[in-house]
Please model this.
Amino acid sequence: MLTLDKYSIGVGDRFAHQARPQLAACMKASEKGVDVVPVWNKSYREHSIVGSEPMSARNAADQAVASLGWKRNYFVDADHINIDNVGGFLDACDFYTIDVASAISSPVGLAEIAAFLRRHPEMTRSIEVPGLDAPVHLSSETTMRMASKYLCAASEAGRIYRHIESHKGAGNFITEVSMDETDLPQTPPELLIILAAIADEHIPVQTIAPKFTGRFNKGVDYEGDAAQFEREFSSDIAVIAYAVSHYGLPANLKLSVHSGSDKFSIYPAIRRSLEKSGAGVHLKTAGTTWLEEIIGLAEAGGDGLALAKQVYAEAFANREALCAPYAAVIDIDPARLPEPTQVEGWTSQEFTNALRHDSSCPAYNPRMRQLLHVGYKVAAKMGARYLDMLEACEESIARNVTLNLYERHIARVFPS
Model:
């Protein structure tokens, strides 16, 4: 059976050009005594926008591993798939993020809820969960209410899992279940019910992605109460440990943090929780690599800087269309975006200072960073012109990709 390592990092790569510098960051971590395995993730939406196929991500990962001599695990993730689009990923991927958030609160029959209660009579009373300050208070009424909210999602996850299994074979892929793209965070009692329902579906889930408190906007820092997040994260770890021991879920089951890139203010909380519990974590960093490509282009100067400025100008002109699909995970005040005519006169340093995620820099502009985060469609439309420039500016791009992934992410999150 394929087993996901204790620490893993989802490394998005919009244009399949940065697998080597991403892997170099994991190798640097290994040299420092921190073992983190890469999971190259790319969603159906990203493939559709870029015009790529899932096998391109597999090929880039395989080539990077062979080139750098990586001897540990690595995976390629069909990110946020559902039953309608999973088919295109079956040959290329060995990790599947099954997204069932849309099925949350879908109608469930009373007979299904009653059957769940019969399977889990322990959920009609308070449960002592080691690691929690207080018992998980449940009753028939509260469990029925929460089961009615999540049973359909768990059932859909089971349906998708079995579809993948019928093609890949049991044990030949990693399964993650994602319920993060919803309005409200799941409480520890809800997570316990979700995990019991997933176990009932016989899904060998190795990571679970719940919705956490606070905003996880794309490419910028966490917005919310970091202390509350830490309590929630630690509680979820305790609930997972309880579910593993009581419901037969895989022993390595761990939390997955989606849109986890650049959430610097909660990295200390994650690290403390991991050190205290001994648990693992999967951190998805997604589009931060695409932003480092743009930074690398700008840093290279000349034609690279000119192209970076053009990408920004076109993203600015088309910002409403680019932002619409990401409205729940970005927060951009258009009045605080620099005008393209202003950006056109910037030096390399002025551009990179505005875009690089360094809150100590007065020029850093998180609105610009978020707009460019969702603006990779602009580069995709440039086709070969953009890809050729990536190769021409490879040195500065690779340096920024590796430094960003290792120093700002891996070194801050994962304990040695």
